[in-house]
């Protein structure tokens, strides 16, 4: 189901409208300025010019909500009115937004409904497609040689970042091992307008770096107008990852 660190699980929280449709930084770019952390069984929300909000991580008496991520059905446990009010105020939204948290027994997404290349039994919480998205620092450096203003890897929200390799070589890593963890590549990550949100300012331009990526990274004919940067992986063997570990390309 993706990365886990302490009580935090990656992409297990989702902002939604009151009728359950996802709200992302595509519609509300300032969402990238919100930070969520967990300590001592509490969720801590922080944002610029906002007071810190703490609520219990587990609120079993709260409602389970039917949600939609793109066109796919999924469920989440509502995080309560205090969180809803905090997010609605921060986004200065005229419509109420809510936060839900994925729990293991709830209905999950099946990535195979988005792309048949994913295994049928694969499940994820709220990512666009896969439990892991991996990319190299070199690919971002290559992109920066073509841009007027540099971007960082944070603009692309990968789960795993790899250093000390050639640009775009991750496109060829069909099977990899990091420590005990084994990953299998499924498909390239087709990039969208979310890459044009500056993670430092929360401002969306709807232009760069996406326009430049489209000039040389339309490498997957199936994804048509979506340039590829980073690769989606499924987890074949779970384990603990450590920053600084060596990545091995596995050949059979």
Q: Would you write up a description of this structure?
A:
The protein has 252 residues and is mainly β. It has helices at 81-91, 137-144, 210-216, and strands spanning 4-5, 8-9, 13-17, 35-39, 42-46, 53-56, 64-69, 72-78, 97-101, 132-136, 160-162, 175-178, 181-190, 228-237, 247-249. 10% of the residues lie in helices and 30% in strands. The strands form four sheets. Strands 11-10-14-13-12-15 form a six-stranded mixed β-sheet. The radius of gyration is 18 Å and the shape is globular. The two termini are 26 Å apart. The mean pLDDT is 97. One of its GO terms (biological process) is nitrate metabolic process. It comes from Cirrhinus molitorella (mud carp). InterPro entries: MoCF_Sase_C, MOCOS_middle, Pyrv_Knase-like_insert_dom_sf.
